[in-house]
Amino acid sequence: MAGVYARMTTDNTMRAARVPKSRTSRLLKLGGLATRVAGNVVAEGSKRWVKGESAPLSELVLTQKNLSHVADNLARMRGAAMKMGQLLSMDAGTLLPAELAAVLARLQAQGMVMPKTQLLDSLESHWGEEWMDQFTYFSFDPVAAASIGQVHKARLDDREELAIKVQFPGVAESIDSDIDNVVSLLRMSGLIPRTLDLDDLIAEARRQLHLEADYLAEARHLNQYSEALNSFRLNDQVLMPECYERLTSKEILTMSFIQAQSLDTWLEQHPEDAGRLLAIMLELFFTEMLHFNLMQTDPNPANYQVQPETRQLVLLDFGAVRAFDRGFVAQYKRAIDVAIAQSRAGLQSALEDLGFFAKGADVANREVVLDIFMLAAEPLRAGGTYDFGASDLAKRIQQRGMSVSRDPNAWHTPPADVLFLHRKMGGMYLLAAKYGAKVNVSEIYNRFA
Fold first, then answer.
1. How far, in Å, CA of 27 to CA of 29, rounded?
2. How far apart are CA 239 and CA 255, in angstroms?
3. How do residues 90-113 score in pLDDT, each as one tens digit?
4. For residues 394 and 377, what is the distance between their CA atoms, to the nearest angstrom?
5. How far apart are CA 190 and CA 280, in angstroms?
6. Contacts with 91 (C-beta within 8 Å, 6 or more apart), sequence order
7. Do 356 and 372 touch, CB atoms closer than 8 A?
8. What is the pLDDT of residue 300?
9. 161-167 and 252-256 as β-strands: parallel, antiparallel, unpaired?
10. Cα(394)–Cα(388) distance, rounded to whole angstroms?
11. Pick from 168, 268, 262, 261: which is nearest to 209 by CA?
């Protein structure tokens, strides 16, 4: 089998920007950003005052100008700063105001890369000055870039093609300080309430980021997931990369490479294939949750490609693989089942068991959470093919969530396991809607009954 790492780009729009390595330089960048946001608030408030208008502080903070500054600066920081922004955007309906969630979501598509000199320093420090001798070809222009590293294509003496992910310098060492700095920035600037309890999310972000910054751990995830995939009912219709352990270290991950098309490109040319591909992805999602108890939790469409000759779905990026406790999975399946049956009392009980309302936010958001969960089960209740393209399900879920995101006192952070599950399931739904897929989701889910 062969594969290639995610975030593939075809428009050559990735920009080079040196990654700040020291804690001091990273803190200064964030400190400068906080000052800039505060300055914009004062300027906007003054303009409104001159016009005889008044506005709450939250409205002055949540301007497009401020939000763009936050997203752009987190992207330049990369590493934990960028990933924290991504994690905060995962629960847009009930954690963050829609404006901030939308801008943070841009971080998923940012394509900044290291300058060549910084790349060479990193390669030489890991492989020595003669590192190029082991390759007949190495592309110094990255074929992909993400929040923690960038990917280069290379070829060995035996002509085997590789995808080599090189971690941005200083990322692993700066995780804890970056997370503290980003949370402080968002609180000081007023972008999130000072009273919002983020302790569990922050602890989870630390754990997840330290894991993702360890490419030896990602290599283990890749091998573990590959083994689990052997039992997937449709395993002959999917491909994933193999790890080259000889050329893999904590900060360099080397994998096999396959020439494939992005999901977007393939479905633009073959729109009739959307139902087949999304059915594979949704069945894999339920298999990950209910059978593997192991999930690749990042639903970014760049993590999926299609091999044109075989029409197989290529699975990418295994840094965000998460294992779930069997007891938690059983509880979550119960919540899905009662939502399908439209038992509101049963769903409330199931969500309480999952810890949804353990932080005291139940009075403000209980009904909204129940409504959203009921809506999310709609494709499972269809009893036949569900037309995602003709449905406004995503819009209805977003609108219901907006009623909470406008009230800072009602913001909450669900349990981490739930957050990652919802991130993946919501991503699958959005992809199905984007490509107009028609899928019998209930038939897929009932295979696990």
1. 5
2. 13
3. 443 344 555 555 555 555 545 568
4. 12
5. 42
6. 413, 414, 419, 422, 423
7. no
8. 83
9. antiparallel
10. 9
11. 168
Q: Amino acid letter at 270? A: H
Residue 55 tokens, joined: 């506005």
Angstrom distances, CA of residue 331 to CA of 90, 217, 441: 22, 28, 20
Region of 168 please: left (phi>0), alpha (psi -120 to 50) or beta: beta
- CA–chain centroid gap for 106, Å, is 11
Euclidean distance between CA atoms 212 and 6, whole angstroms: 14
CA 72 vs. chain centroid, Å, equals: 17
- Number of residues that make up the chain: 449
Continuous segment of H or E residues that includes residue 260: none
Q: In 3-state terms, what secondary structure has residue 133?
A: helix
For residues 401 and 102, is the Cβ–Cβ distance under 8 A? no
Measured between its terminal Cα atoms, the distance across the chain in Å is: 31
Average pLDDT score over residue span 364-379: 87
Phi, psi of 7 (to 5 degrees): 65, 35
pLDDT tier at 412 (50, 70, 90 boundaries)? low
* DSSP bridge partners of 150: 145, 166
DSSP state of 241: P
Residue 393 · residue 433 · CB < 8 Å: yes
Q: Domain ranges in the chain? A: 15-110+176-191
H-only helix segments in 133-252: 171-188, 199-212, 215-229
Give the C-alpha separation, 92 to 88, whole Å: 8
Q: Rounded to two decimals, what is the model's pTM? A: 0.78
- For residue range 167-196, list pLDDT tens digits in order: 988 888 888 877 777 777 667 656 666 666
Dist CA 157 CA 155 (whole Å): 7
Q: Is 79:73 a contact under the CB 8 Å cutoff?
A: no
Angle at 98 between CA 88 and CA 73, to 5 degrees: 55
Say what angle helices 79-88 and 64-77 make with each other, to 10 degrees: 130
Across the chain, mean pLDDT equals: 78
